[in-house]
Write a structure and sequence with these properties.
- The chain is α/β, with parallel strands linked by helices.
- It folds into three domains: about 1-35, no CATH class; about 45-190 and about 260-435, Alkaline Phosphatase, subunit A (3-Layer(aba) Sandwich), CATH 3.40.720; about 190-255.
- It is built from eleven helices and eleven strands.
- The strands form three sheets. A seven-stranded mixed sheet has the order 6-7-3-8-9-4-10, with helices on both faces.
- The chain is globular.
- The model is unreliable at about 1-35 (pLDDT under 50).
């Protein structure tokens, strides 16, 4: 008669490359088995949704004298009220150095001073999502995903200002985004029709070009002025970023893209406006489900969104509202942005992690904008949701200082998500109220 231990050993099939375990059988006795390995904690995620042309100033925030959890939820954002325990409004945040009302979202995630360098009319710095991506993107196929809206990089009509997306690299240069649901779908989930050998050859060719560039640059450094050397160093930093990207592409070259469950279909190419926003939600949730990326930015549409809902004016015209039809359209915009975020939270809560929790439990979502209303840049509209950064949610917070740096929020999110940095932008510290029980 065989002992339980002997039967247990025979329940495992071993080879030189794998160990395959049979299902747990009660007759073997629980003591014969080692404890099941503990599941790894689900990863942290950060998501930023930029609204563009501000909000309806007197309707969007809770009343300033209603702070903490006992506040009246803004009626214009009613679709979000079912999630009030899981989100927080923050007032009195601003970027002191972003004084240009037409810059839109350009400095929303950076806090940079565009005139910081003498003699230059434009300067930007790294955005918070890219700092997060350096830490959270090491294990994913895509370090970060930048989404935009139909219309591409020319997003001035949406109040976002210059930039290819909401993201800016370490040199303050714009990072390109995926501007249609179709392009995002194929980037995230479609396999290339090009053979593995051809893709490897293409990577090798790009590496060869970079090697030649680096050699030529080194020979030039000894012959040029200090000023030109500074320009060359900036250029070489860009080359190094390309090298990092190529190395990552090579590491994932033979790894098939995971498919979400349930499967997601290729979006309709004709989608525009509000329906387009809904598909972007589906794509982001699906990407998180298969852990394709843990950092996302979404430059939300305004012009196409309001036109898809029946508006006959431009977003810029709407943004200069007072009373009448312009105000009506502005409030309609706010209502549907609230519906968008509520749908996003619904889907994240419904998508389970391996440990039984859900995506929302480990993610931090921010929906906001640099612009309060018209050209006013104080009191940046800000909603933060999710459990990823350890914030105590369900409150309305009003900062004591009316010029509290918005970068304090970005710094708080980084720290709360386990990303160790000394500061971010013009931050002066974390927002302690976010962590207080």
């Amino acid at each position: 008669m065989h002992s339980p231990f002997q039967r247990t050993r025979r329940a495992f099939l071993k080879s030189s490359t794998a160990t395959i375990a049979l299902p747990f059988l009660e007759s073997f006795g629980h003591r014969a088995f080692a404890a099941a390995p503990k599941l790894a904690a689900p990863p942290k995620r950060l998501l930023y949704m930029g609204m563009g042309f501000g909000v309806t100033a007197d309707k969007w925030f809770p009343e300033r004298d209603q702070t903490g959890s006992d506040y009246e939820f803004p009626a214009i954002l009613n679709p979000l009220e079912k999630h009030r325990e899981d989100l927080t409004f923050i007032q009195n945040l601003m970027h002191k150095d972003s004084a240009d009302g037409h810059s839109g979202s350009t400095f929303w995630l950076t806090g940079a001073n565009r005139y910081a360098i003498p003699g230059q009319s434009f300067h930007n710095s790294v955005s918070v999502d890219q700092v997060a991506a350096e830490a959270l993107g090491k294990e994913t196929r895509f370090s970060s995903i930048q989404l935009g809206a139909t219309g591409g990089a020319n997003s001035n009509s949406d109040g976002h200002g210059p930039g290819l997306s909401l993201a800016w690299n370490r040199l303050g240069k714009p990072i390109a985004g995926l501007n249609t649901p179709v392009s995002a779908f194929h980037r995230l989930f479609s396999e290339s029709n090009t053979s593995l050998e051809e893709r490897q050859a293409m990577l090798n060719e790009q590496r060869s070009v970079l090697d030649t560039v680096m050699e030529n640059a080194k020979s030039m450094q000894r012959k040029i002025s200090t000023s030109d050397n500074e320009k060359l160093d900036e250029y070489l930093q860009s080359v190094r970023e390309i090298e990092i990207r190529l190395a990552k592409e090579e590491a994932w070259l033979e790894v098939p893209k995971k498919k979400p469950n349930p499967a997601i279909k290729e979006p309709n190419k004709s989608l525009r406006g509000y329906k387009e926003m809904g598909i972007m939600v589906d794509l982001m949730v699906a990407a998180m489900q298969v852990d394709a990326s843990r950092v996302f930015t979404y430059k939300m549409p305004v012009d196409t969104m309001i036109s898809s809902l029946g508006a006959t004016m431009s977003a810029h015209t709407m943004s200069h509202y007072s009373e009448g039809e312009r105000r009506t359209v502005s409030e309609m915009r706010d209502l549907h942005n609230a519906k968008f975020l509520a749908r996003f939270i619904d889907k994240m809560k419904a998508t389970k992690e391996a440990d039984g929790s859900n995506l929302f439990d480990h993610s931090t979502l921010t929906m906001g904008t640099n612009i309060f209303s018209v050209h006013t840049l104080r009191n940046c509209p800000t909603i933060v949701a999710g459990g990823g950064a350890g914030f105590k949610q369900g409150r309305s917070l009003v900062m004591n200082d009316e010029k509290t740096p918005l970068c304090n929020l970005w710094y708080s999110q980084l720290k709360g998500s386990g990303i160790h940095v000394d500061s971010f932008g013009d931050s002066t510290g974390v927002i302690e109220e976010l962590f207080e029980s």
